[in-house]
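Shipment paperwork, digital attachment
Item: protein structure file
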Amino acid sequence: MEEIKILIADDQTLMRDGLKTILELEENFRIIGTAKDGEEALAFCKKKSPDLVLMDIRMPKMDGVECTKILKNLYPEIIVLILTTFNDVNYIVKALNYGAAGYILKDIEGDELVKAINDAYKGSLMLPSSVAKKLVEKLSENTKVKPKEKKLLLDFSEREVEVAKMLSMGFNNRQIASSLFISEGTVKNYISNVYSKLGTSDRTVAAIEIKKIIES
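Attachment content:
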């Protein structure tokens, strides 16, 4: 199995050491460093190039969300897997929007963490069911169309509104599919419908138009 070079970023020494101990037991994992905040994580990545960063969200100086944003801009090839005790929807949306490969909770079992890292390295979006459910619930709340939106989104189904709003937030098709528990093919069909109803075939134009509708 291909070796995965991992950086652990967490402000708690016990958590860093515990994760390091667990992950070093895996033959294909190599822990190349640890960091206690986002600034240290960025500095480390400038000197060495991990394949994957296990990133805590709540850290001093620079939190995991901001670090993910900067890290993915500088080194898009580095995989960021958010690790936290906080299943906060706003953090989930921001982290994924900035390019995180997934979001897992710190109470995850050791073997599940190992699987999550291997899956994320292979390109899968990691989102535990409890987090995905909360995200979908939040999106469902947001699909209650405001009066100003009603006329413009009159022809949109409830699911099309969900997909359109996630599209406007920068989610790619794979992330939308995973979050809504539907296939990527189904997502493509919904997006085609959205394009058709907005009168465009450009994703960026569609996202801007949806944002205008939502924020009007």
